[in-house]
Structures are given as C-alpha cells and as structure tokens.
Specification:
DUF455; Ferritin; UCP012318; binds fe (ii) ion; single chain; two-stranded parallel sheet; about 65% helix; mainly alpha; Ferritin-like_SF; globular
C-alpha cells in the first residue's frame, strides 16, 4: 500500500534500491498525487525523515569520478558509456526530486511547489526508463559499467538549506544538462541510434522545466525573505558547489528556464569570471 502523505511516498521511493522498481513506484505515486489533486481531495504533504542517502542497487559499482574509465565518445563502447552515465544521472535525479519534497516538508510552501517536484520526479523516472531501454537495445543494461560515486554530494551538502538546494541542484546541475545535451544528441544522431536521439530529445525538452521550477521557487523564497536573488545565488553556489561553472553555456535554454546570464557568468572559470 502507498504512504498516506506525500513525504511518506517520497521516502518510499528513496528507500527502494532497484532502478526499475524505484521509477515504477515513483510514477505510481506521482499519478496518485495528481489524481487526488484533480479530484479535489489533496494528499497531505506531512513530514517524514528521508534517509541521508537513497537506497541504491548493488550494481553499478560506484567509483570516484577520477577512477571511472573514459572511452572515446565516437566508439560504440563510448556511446554505451554515455548512455550508462545518463541513466545514472536520471536515477539520481528521481531521488533528488523526491528528496527535496521529503527533506523540506517542514518548510511551508504553496502546493504548486509540490506539484512541480512531483511532476519532475515523474519525468526523471520516465527518462531513466527510456535510457535503460536504449542500453538494453544495445545489449547492455544499467549496472553493467561503473558509475560516479559523488552524485549525492550536492544533496548532502544542502540537506539543511532549501535555497542552497534550489541553487545547486536545479539551477546549477540540471542547467548544466541543458548545456551538454545537444552535443550528446549529435553523437547519437551521427551513429544512427534513433532510439537514443528520441530519448534525449524528450529529456532535453523536459529538463528546461526543472531548471525553471528551481528558478521560480528560488525567487519565491528570495521574495519571502527580502533577499537579492542574484547575490544570494552567488553566495550559495560558492558555498555549496565545489569549483567554477563550465562554459560554454546554453544561453538560449537557460533564458527560457529563467536563468539570466548575470547569475551564472560570474561563477564561471576563464576570463569572464573576474567581473
Ligand atoms: Fe532527466
Ligand atoms: Fe531534471
């Protein structure tokens, strides 16, 4: 049976280890949330205690990013490695979106905040499954290769700070996805892998909204606390994100998501970072 509050539902997803099971549960919970919303008897948000780290399957083996073997992106093995890395990112993203709901259930927020992250978690679950289908169509699967161990660090670092979480996860990490996805689509297009191209186009279209939700609720909280959004963003990213942001930036999609250039350029490495 499902949890009776949204934060309990989130914890159930976070404590499910298997990727396909986690995403199936995530999609069921999202459907239940929106069905209840539509019927006019909202599921209460409640409060719950999420695990410090989400449950993970035994495979993939998690390695320090420096120890994850690199393969040429043009080779079939290189493309499998990209798909595997994307699947790993999507699975983490499922947990990140449920974690923001569970972790900050005590912070009073408009219901739209919860709608946005439930919808995002549902979309990430779809993304994980689409990319797993691509891996399986190419004779592989999620878990066949090692994956980055550091992906939950941003969540742990910002476990006490909702504005920090919004700044670092949707507005930095997910925005980075907007920068790199067109290049990945190009690689799979060149190789004639139409399944992967289609999957990545879905991801690319939907991720813009996740960044936009981050920006929307970040600005909302700045308004609540009478803070200057750009200054606070710079402070929080410098505090919680380790290292400079990497250009080139997808300025067009970032703008569409409500991220103005004066938010990210001053945090970038290179000559433009001085200002
Ligand atoms: Fe995604
Ligand atoms: Fe996302």
């Amino acid at each position: 049976m499902t949890g009776t509050t949204l934060t309990q539902m989130a914890v159930e997803v976070l404590t499910t280890a298997d990727g396909r099971e986690k995403t199936a549960l995530s999609r069921r919970h999202a459907a239940a949330w929106f069905a209840a919303r539509e019927a006019g008897h909202d599921i209460p948000v409640g409060t719950a205690t999420p695990p410090l780290r989400p449950a993970r399957p035994e495979r993939p083996e998690l390695l320090d990013p420096r120890d994850v073997p690199r393969r040429r992106p043009g080779s079939p093995q290189g493309r499998l490695a990209i798909l595997h890395a994307v699947a790993h990112i999507e699975l983490n993203a499922v947990d990140l979106h449920w974690d923001i709901i569970a972790r900050f259930g005590h912070v009073p927020m408009p219901i739209g905040f919860h709608d946005d992250w439930v919808k995002s978690a549902d979309e990430e679950s779809k993304h994980f499954n689409l990319i797993c289908d691509c891996l399986e169509a190419n004779g592989s699967h999620y878990g066949a290769l090692p994956a980055h161990a550091g992906m939950w660090r941003a969540a742990e670092d910002t476990a006490q700070d909702l504005m920090g979480r919004l700044a670092v996860v949707p507005m930095v990490l997910e925005a980075r996805g907007l920068d790199v996805t067109p290049g990945m689509i190009g690689i799979f297009d060149k190789a004639g892998d139409t399944r992967a191209v289609e999957a990545m186009k879905v991801i690319y279209a939907e991720e813009v909204h996740h960044v936009a939700y981050g920006s929307k609720w970040f600005h909302f909280l700045c308004g609540r606390h009478d803070l200057d959004p750009k200054e606070v963003f710079h402070d929080l990213v410098r505090r919680y994100f380790h290292g400079p942001l990497k250009p080139p930036f997808n300025e067009e999609k970032r703008a569409e998501a409500g991220l103005p250039p004066d938010f990210y350029w001053p945090l970038a490495d290179g000559p433009a970072a001085e200002s």
